[in-house]
Amino acid sequence: MDVDAGHGAALGGALPTQPGELPLARRLRSLLTWPTTETDPVTHLVRAHRGIHANTDPSVLRRAYTIAENMHRGQFRKSGEPYITHPLAVAQICADLGMDTTTLVAALLHDTVEDTRYTLQALAEDFGPEVAHLVDGVTKFDKAFYGTAAEAETIRKMIIAAGKDVRVLIIKLADRLHNMRTLGVRSPASRQRIARATQEVLVPLCDRLGIQTLKRELDDVVLLHLEPDEHARIARHVHDRPGWDAYLAEVVARARVALRRSRVDAEVTPRPRHLYSIWKDTVAGGHSTPYDLPRIAVVVDGPATDCYAALGAIHGLWRPVPGRFKDFIASPKNNLYRSLHTSVRGPKDHTVEVLIRTEEMHRSAEYGIAANFRFPLAGGGAAARAEQLDWLRRVLDWEQDAADPAQFLQSLRCDLAEAQIQVFADGRQVLLPAGATPVDLAYELGTELGDHCLATRINGRLAPLSSELEEGDVVEIFTETDAANGFDADAAPRGPRREWLGFVKSPHAQMQISRWFAEHTEPGISITDKVRLGRATIGLALRKHNRGLASDLPLLRLSEELGYPDLETLLVAVFDRVIEPDAVVRQLIDLVDHRQ
């Protein structure tokens, strides 16, 4: 759907849309020249779809296109193009991913319910409940009715719909990708806002779904609009690097020979980085010039064990760089990405990165959850899809505990923004946000265990509950029922401690602790204590952003903007979890930064 869709208005943007284009001229030109060929506009879509799914019937796509074109007739994007170009482009992105016919039909119709007189009931009657569910899942709530809560309500609704059918998220990602491609016609402030929202929610969603072929382009276009000078610098570097192609050709040729000698059947290709990846490594390493190592991919034709044989062949050819080997086959990433990563001293003693994977791993790395639709006969799809969507089930679990959509959106951003670690507890592997503590783990294992945890052992040693867990830690959680293990359960307080909110990382743990305090009153705590603890909670939340307060003046201004009669009332509201400290801190930082 378009980022600012409206009825009959100029909606959206145009092709690689740099700022400064004139919408009126483009609209007039589009009226005179569209369609630009004598062929049916949907022909290219049908051809791409049947190129992957040869036995599909294109008639339903043509019917969906005809309805979408009729419904959107008279509507235009900000670029001046007819609005139908947007849903057609979204469907094309889905077709290139290899999605099924149902997804493409929903993509063609995804804005009709929101922006035209076409109702969800009519759509369900014409195309069935499956298509109607997908379209409803990506339909935005009306800003005029929901106000500032509209964005959070929309994302919450989309995630819930995706719990029933993940294709909702794939259509949304394709929708945002086309809008990002055509963002240049909007104002600088709008470009920044939309790019930031894309970076915070949709790019991480794309990563969790494992769809790297979309994520790479989203990353690059976000960089274009948030860091245009850096984007231009990296693009110049990629365009101008001398001898790059010849060097990679030599690396590829020598790697192929080494693999043949080791009797490993594999395809070797150059694997250049995209712009955002180069920029991120440049910034992370503090390099003054773009940090862009040559890279190749080795895709073996055989089982996973052949990947290790290929690794041996590569290391036998070139000396490996110490500390640069990662085995994501034995320990896949949280989005089930699997591959071997190594760096070697290649020809002319240059460092070369090497990715080694099977064909099935390569498909999964490129298309993620979409691979199950693109390669439906590959086998193992249902089990892989279920495992890949474990994170979505966890989100839906704590979604029910979110007090309101704004809290849900903030928690979702935190969950998506964090790197992940895997720890072991109760004989199983548990996925947690990086920096998580034993309390986070306890709540992940069960709400009852979280509410009553008293102590922990990490790798066999007693440790504070606030300890940050690390990848591979083996963790034991003890409650008041574990007095036999030497813990003084009678002396311990019942239920969670409020200070836990200062160090837990997972949204689930934060919400469950807040829920407990909402259900259990605390007689005897004074307003003065609440003010003091509310201020401390804000201080801890500010520390996560490496910020602090020199005076109460910014807090006082914020309490006025939020409609509180005084600062003390705001601090009590923070203590009572009426308003989330992270939300206060985010608004506080915006307030301070915008006044500078």
UniProtKB/TrEMBL annotation:
This protein's name: GTP pyrophosphokinase
InterPro entries, sorted: Beta-grasp_dom_sf (IPR012675), HD/PDEase_dom (IPR003607), HD_domain (IPR006674), NT_sf (IPR043519), RelA_SpoT (IPR007685), TGS (IPR004095), TGS-like (IPR012676)
Organism of this sequence: Micromonospora deserti
Keyword Transferase: yes
GO CC annotations on file: plasma membrane
Boundaries of every TGS domain copy: 417-479
Highest taxon above the source species: Bacteria
A single GO molecular function term of this UniProt record: kinase activity
Pfam name, any one: TGS
PROSITE patterns (alphabetical): HD, TGS
Family from the record: Belongs to the RelA/SpoT family.
Gene Ontology BP terms: guanosine tetraphosphate metabolic process
Biological or metabolic pathway of the protein: Purine metabolism
Residues in HD domain copies: 83-180
Keywords from the named record: Kinase, Transferase
